[in-house]
Design goal:
With 85 residues, this protein is α+β, with helices and mostly antiparallel strands. Helix content is 44%, strand content 20%. The chain has a single domain, classed as Glutaredoxin. β3 and β4 form a beta hairpin.
Length: 85
Amino acid sequence: MKKIKMYTLSTCLWCKRTKKFFEERKIPFEAVDYDKVDEQEQERIMAEMREKGGGGSFPYVCIGSDVVQGYEPDEFERLLDCEKK
């Protein structure tokens, strides 16, 4: 299974929906609430996001080597289905 990692904001509705999407499907993921880490970690996260092709929008979801910004359930499904084939 592809590794799933996401950066979220603890107060963001779309971030909560993204987590729920994976939880309801029992798909394991790692989530980091950007707004709950220290400034140094925030800088590291933002650099990683930019390096992988993205800006500063949340949720930021990495599914394997693919990046999805925002709550995009159709794209999550597409990327996860690609893995099953």
